């Protein structure tokens, strides 16, 4: 490690100082460099095979993959922790709160009928947040370990292009350095899209980041946007006792990818859990005054106006690529109309050795999509070929029950004029779901009318997020619904509902 990172002169200086004894060693100029190296910094402008700007899922996975491929690699991250949005303020903390708030809610409302009587149940929000922070810290430290294992130099600072091969880094602990890369990959991620006129203070008017760290349960919460992030956060705070209203401009929740049958069922279930919805409704303005946030609402198609008040307002209207301060102007790379960095199929910008992966370019803003691109981008650099099937990227909403889908939904097939078969199977008819007293939801499968090739799978139900892996594999391998239907599934499992939905797509389900 010392040999690979320290310049040769510095190596010699440290070596001779160390021979002269400990007092000499600590004053040697190169000792300072060595200490920096020990803290995980690279130390000088040097040539790397690959430099990653951004240590989120896209950046850190690409860095590890590059290390595994024997490339000399550095990863620049400004946050002071690896893992990006996903680990620090996204997937992981939200799933921690979703899991634990669900347990709390279940203990309060769903144990008596199971023969479990519990005494006083109290929420300790500070402890719930601590549990979340511990999960996050453990995982981010895990990536640091993987960096060391795969010989990735971790540079803590903000990177900006000085030229096409050189990145200037403003170090987190002060000072600057430069790194040169034969290949440079931009993986700077995304940020919450602001709502015009509503100033985010992350206490009363919050993005998902603030919603993951509230210090007390707000009496009322209003969520602008009924997409996945909005509904996950709405679920957390509603379970913990807040009165939550979700305002959605479109006529259905879950965002455009969610099949409308599934979205309708999801909305009903979430309403039963206490969430309130206003669909086809536009927030026209908002302001925080005193202890409340007031939003003015209007029917999306114009007309009726009303005001809604809450102690906390979550702005969850989407995310936008983040490229601020990257020095793109120094290399002449431009953004498209949605602020995405433009790339070709091999993730190359118009400067071929500069590539882009993850949230800051095209495609769904999902951690597993970023991860796939990271591996493929390194393979393109190293071997000249890579693979990501954008037709088989699953989406999961981790509410209770979970909602998951992969491939196309019914509306998309109709719009494309594709003739299809539909098969469904409800969890009310699945023995495991019945045993677990968790029968909400269904599996819906769509296959090509002529060839029976599976085109889309949509699930709402317990563990849908795990079950969708089978659907994704089926889609990836071009399976027909008959292929799945003739595959033996263990009994009693929730996955049998998946098999029966396939049976109902090409023939008949047995149990419904
Ligand atoms: C609340 C929430 C929940 C989510 N849940 C899920 C989920 O369950 N499943 C899922 O698949 N996705 C989820 N996502 C989306 C997921 O987090 C992102 O798709 C994923 O993090 C994208 O990875 P990335 O590496 O492209 O970007 P990011 O994770 O945003 O990482 C980019 C990194 O680059 C750093 N950076 C930026 N500019 C510079 C610079 N100039 N120099 C150095 N560093 C820089 C940033 O500090 C950041 O750490 C969620 C997002 C949110 C907000």
From TrEMBL:
Q: Is Nucleotide-binding found in the keyword set? A: yes
- Which residues does the record give as NAD(+) binding sites? 225-232, 248, 318
- Gene3D superfamilies named in the record: 3.30.390.30, FAD/NAD(P)-binding domain (3.50.50.60)
- Report the residue ranges that make up the Pyridine nucleotide-disulphide oxidoreductase dimerisation domain in this protein: 393-502
Example GO molecular function term? Answer: flavin adenine dinucleotide binding
Reported EC number(s) for this entry are 1.8.1.4
**This protein's UniProt keywords:** Disulfide bond, FAD, Flavoprotein, NAD, Nucleotide-binding, Oxidoreductase, Redox-active center
Q: State the PROSITE patterns in the record.
A: PYRIDINE_REDOX_1
**How many cofactors are bound and how?**
Binds 1 FAD per subunit.
Q: What Pfam families does the annotation carry? A: Pyr_redox_2, Pyr_redox_dim
Binding positions for FAD per the UniProt entry: 95, 159, 188-190, 359, 365-368
Q: Look up the record and give one Gene Ontology term from the biological process aspect.
A: 2-oxoglutarate metabolic process
GO CC annotation: what is one?
Answer: mitochondrial matrix
- Tell me its family: Belongs to the class-I pyridine nucleotide-disulfide oxidoreductase family.
Protein's recorded name: Dihydrolipoyl dehydrogenase
């Amino acid at each position: 490690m010392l040999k690979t990172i320290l310049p040769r002169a510095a190596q010699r200086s440290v070596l001779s100082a160390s021979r002269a004894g400990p007092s000499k060693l600590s004053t040697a100029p190169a000792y300072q460099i060595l200490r920096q190296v020990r803290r995980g910094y690279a130390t000088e402008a040097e040539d790397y095979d690959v430099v990653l700007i951004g240590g989120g899922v896209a950046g850190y996975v690409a860095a590890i993959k590059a290390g595994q491929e024997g490339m000399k690699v550095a990863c620049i991250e400004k946050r002071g922790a690896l893992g990006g949005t996903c680990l620090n303020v996204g997937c992981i903390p939200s799933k921690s709160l979703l899991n634990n708030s669900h347990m709390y809610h279940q203990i309060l409302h769903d144990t008596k009928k199971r023969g479990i009587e519990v005494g006083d149940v109290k929420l300790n929000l500070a402890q719930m947040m601590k549990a979340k922070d511990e999960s996050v810290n453990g995982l981010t430290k895990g990536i640091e370990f993987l960096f060391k294992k795969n010989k990735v130099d971790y540079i803590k600072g903000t990177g900006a292009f000085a030229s096409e091969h050189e990145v200037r880094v403003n170090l987190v602990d002060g000072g600057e350095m430069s790194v040169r890369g034969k290949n440079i990959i931009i993986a700077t991620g995304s940020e919450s899209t602001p709502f015009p006129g509503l100033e985010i203070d992350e206490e009363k008017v919050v993005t998902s980041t603030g919603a993951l760290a509230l210090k007390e349960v707000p009496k009322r919460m209003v969520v602008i946007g009924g997409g996945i992030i909005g509904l996950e956060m709405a679920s957390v705070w509603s379970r913990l006792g807040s009165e939550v209203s979700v305002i959605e401009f479109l006529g259905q929740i879950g965002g455009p990818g969610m099949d409308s049958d599934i979205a309708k069922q999801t909305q009903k279930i979430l309403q039963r859990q206490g969430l309130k919805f206003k669909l086809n409704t536009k927030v026209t303005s908002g302001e925080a005054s005193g202890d409340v946030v007031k939003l003015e609402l209007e029917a999306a198609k114009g007309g009726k106006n009303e005001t809604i008040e809450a102690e906390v307002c979550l702005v969850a209207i989407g995310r936008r690529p983040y490229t601020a301060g990257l020095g793109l102007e120094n290399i002449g790379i431009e953004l498209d109309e949605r602020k995405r960095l433009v790339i070709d199929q091999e993730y190359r910008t118009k400067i071929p050795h500069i590539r882009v992966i993850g949230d800051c370019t095209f495609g769904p803003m999902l951690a597993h999509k970023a991860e796939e691109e990271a591996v493929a981008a390194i393979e393109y650099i190293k071997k000249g070929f890579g693979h990501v099937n954008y037709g088989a990227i699953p989406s999961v909403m981790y509410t209770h029950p979970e909602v998951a889908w992969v491939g196309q939904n019914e509306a998309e097939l109709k719009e494309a004029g594709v003739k299809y078969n539909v098969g469904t199977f409800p969890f009310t008819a699945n023995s495991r779901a019945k045993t677990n007293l968790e029968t909400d939801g269904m599996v819906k499968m769509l296959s090509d009318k002529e060839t029976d090739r599976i085109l889309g799978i949509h699930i709402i139900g317990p563990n849908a997020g795990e079950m969708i892996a089978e659907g994704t594999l089926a889609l990836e391998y071009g399976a027909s619904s008959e292929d799945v239907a003739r595959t033996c599934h263990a009994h009693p499992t929730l996955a049998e509902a998946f098999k029966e939905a396939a049976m109902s797509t090409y023939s008949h389900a047995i149990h419904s």
